[in-house]
Fold each of these.
Amino acid sequence: MKARDARNSRVARTGDEKPELPGVWRAYGALLQYLRKRSGMNQQQLGDAIGYSLEQVASVEQGRRPAKAAFTVAADRVLNADGALEALQDEVDRAKLPRFFRNFALFEAEAVSRFSYDPLLVPGLLQTEAYARALFAGHCPPLNEEIIDQHTEARLSRQKLLSRMPLAELSFIIGEEALRNPVGDRELMREQWQHLLDVGALRNVEIQVMPAACGFHSGLNGPFVVLETGEHQHLGYIESQEVGCVVHDPAEVSASGLRYGKLRSQALNSTESARLIERLVGET
């Protein structure tokens, strides 16, 4: 049974009813089944040909489990699909994201510029797999392992934006507290810090650190993103406690842009930020 929460237009579920599976998983599964039958193969034969079990193939065809990229590449090749399955992979991955984030993810994937301020955590686009998995594993209430896997895969898939052509202009301001917060053990954090240095060396990426001793600044109200779409529309995004909001109002987006410009002037520059991160790596 479903009830509508008028305050945030979410569908609230009651009882023990299972959540509805994303439609794109079912569409992908139906296409996979059609291509398999067209090739004269049963599920076991397809699984043997691409290195997956009968149960895995059946689950994907029924839309109960999303296909991973490796599954799609192999199935597309074996079934002579001419890229039909691969064309759906980004949508399949996007549906693995938490529901509240999916609308913004559509804009993010096509962004020509994206500027973000993250005071407490390393932003998702810059996270290592281990760091992302540790965050999802610590979710409250707890997530099952399958959901943790799906959310982690989806977050890593978003990182295509870092190298997508044409290149997007990307700027990140990260609070020093986020870098020093031990999300995992020292080795996990060392890997994360080194990853920040590697990504920060890309010519379309700028990473700045907001020092913990900066005092009052305009980012103390929380994280936010300012984004420009391929159609040169400017959007904002704010998120807290699994509630996300895409901001379309030009005045509000403009205010966020002004705040971000102020934050850039108050944060360490990219060279100073890299030196701080290098010191953290050296301390491990």
Amino acid sequence: MATPHAWRAARVTPLGELNAPPRMTAVALRLAVQVVLVWSLWRGLYAHTGTTAGLSRDQAVTYAVLAVLASRLRELDQYAGRDTVLQHMHFGTIVYWYLRPLPPQRYYALRAAGEQLYGLAWALTGYLICLAAGIVEPPPSAAVAGVFVLSMLLGQWVLYYVMLVLDQLCFWTIRNTAAMLILLFAQNLLSGVYAPLWFFPDWFVTMSAFLPFQATLSVPLSLYVGRIPLSDAAFQLSVQAAWVVVLALFTRLLWRRAARRVISQGG
């Protein structure tokens, strides 16, 4: 169980944001511009059609805007605090993660929890504003809303482990900025951040079904807009839960192997 001192790790990245008002203003402006552009784009795409790929205009717009808001859950500037795994590996300071009383895996988890809670405040505020402005549609029923919240929680859990795996790769590749950018792009593409997966070819959708990425965002948002019916919700939730278990075991193994690669002189 984490001590009160250990929970201070959860404030590392959020405090970096809160202590820099210009950065928060920039985030708010960028988020507003993204929402307006996405809303305009999808409304324009549906200007001369009623339903495409099984989605109506309102469903597509709601999905796209919610995807933008959901991206704020983990989109924080960790580089400003020089506390990313990639930076620690580059500067040889990753060893300090193993010299603290708090184990590195717990520190990483607490910091990620703080980032997601801070990001949730941004996403929830944006959602309420968009809902009041009529930009996004409300969930069709209370049951859909409840399933969406549960699915979103599981999706963020899966996303945490996916991002953890990407960071853990730094223990073997050390200087892999290009690889990290490619993997992040793949994660956003396959999770449906850029566009709903139903707009892609069948082979692409089939391939992504065997990967954990769509469980992070596509599934929760599909449940929200009604693209996945409630009758299929139990199966989708079980798939998400299975990915949580699989990735948890895999990352636990990687933490053990990563510790063997850390030496006392540095990363």
Amino acid sequence: MYEWIGTAWNALPEPLRDPVALAIPAFALLLAIEWIAAAKLEDGSRGSYSARDARASLSMGLVSIATTTAWKALALVGYTAIYVYVAPWHLPADAWYTWLILILGVDLLFYGYHRIAHRTRLIWATHQAHHSSEYFNFAAALRQKWNNSGEVIMWLPLPLLGMPPWMVFVGFSINLVYQFWVHTERIDRLPRPFEFVFNTPSHHRVHHGRDPQYLDKNYGGILIIWDRLFGTYAEEIERPNYGLTKPVDTFNIWTLQTHEYRNIARDVAASRSWKERVGYLVGPPGWTPAGPRERATADSD
């Protein structure tokens, strides 16, 4: 069976060997269905679309395809060197347990990176663009960041443990594809056993909420178990308000991607000591020398 899968995979053109590329037709179909459904809502409040907001999300997603490819090409060099010269063993790509380790390992590392991204301002600057939409729909799922450097570093343990580099990229793509469908208000609660183990639209609506009770919660990608284990889980009690705690009020995709870097540069330039400079870089969003303030931006993936 594994040989058949490998043969079929290798028969695909190189650009299509990414699960994200294979899923694009499904993304487009689901987005169209949701958009049509939203247009028929009487109040337009749940799952609704703004044409300008959706265009900004789709544009950022298209650019992210190119930037992610560039980051992966760079990472491939490092991962291959680690896999060939440093890894103490090489896991077989045709073994079921390798794929299990891959999926669980990528998801746990994604949880760790995602949590760091929300609590470290310099990394938050790369991630906040995904949370900048005040709508929660399939278009917002495609509002991806352009700087994947943090994730590239976070995946390093996988080739170090003997995971073939190409599998690392496939594993992350699978994780990303799964997360598309949780960006919707059209799906309510699912059966409790599923909600207990897996990330769902209800859990992810909490993550994208800018309400105080929802900030920095539900970081999981595929599994919500990590949040339950590490104390970052929150139940959806009422419909969240989405977006950043301090809205950017623009649909310019360059501004959406870069405004927080400019804010950091401004704060660092105005700092009076190295302690303050470091605090503005690695402290949580909203950090000031005098103590916490209203968060400059708020997240959700």
Amino acid sequence: MKGAAATRIVAWGIAITLVVLPVVGVMQGWFAAGRWPVTQLKVEAEFAHVSAEQIRSAVMPHLGKGFFATDLEDVRRAIGALPWVESVEVRKRWPDTLLLRIYERQPFARWNENRLISRQGLVFDAPGADQMGDLPRLNGPDSRLAEVVSFYAQARKAFEGRAQLSIVGVSLSERGSWSVTTDSGAEIVIGDRDQADRRLARFLDVYPQLVAGRHGGFAYADLRYTNGFAIRWPEPETTATPKVGS
């Protein structure tokens, strides 16, 4: 009986060892770079600004530990630090593959010329932001970002279908004065926000009459008057008089 019991104890000891050793091996790095290296990187993404080379460069320093020892959180942080990356999902697939799903930031507008606002309302830095002329240009104190975005939407709605003008920019000065920029480059100074709707409506109601018979639009308008506004037209182009030589 004692011999049989001893045999069972030894058998259980062997079974436990077989179960525990792989776990210990992973924890201690036994299955590292020399065993089961990561050899494939598969990426799901729609790239507009992030390049495959940028992703490869961010990931490669974290792949030298092998399949089991590769830290997914380290990989996620490395890719997430790239300027245009919004979020990253990282998974392993046995025996040698790292799977990445990358979501790019979608720019909504430029912020103070050289930064961008994502569609999630976050400000971020990205190379070439100041060259993206097709995006709305929003300017103001960082602490009032949400207010500037809201006013841009309000101004665009006021101009919709009226006077053949479109809004491409909004600015809020340090003193709290609002102004908008049209697609022709004209500036419209509005002043206080609580007067914006009334002042814009007054200006847009008469604008078609002001431009009737004129070639081109205005250059500047100041709506901060009690019963009207001031408007400045572009300087007329002068034609140089040709010199007559002797």
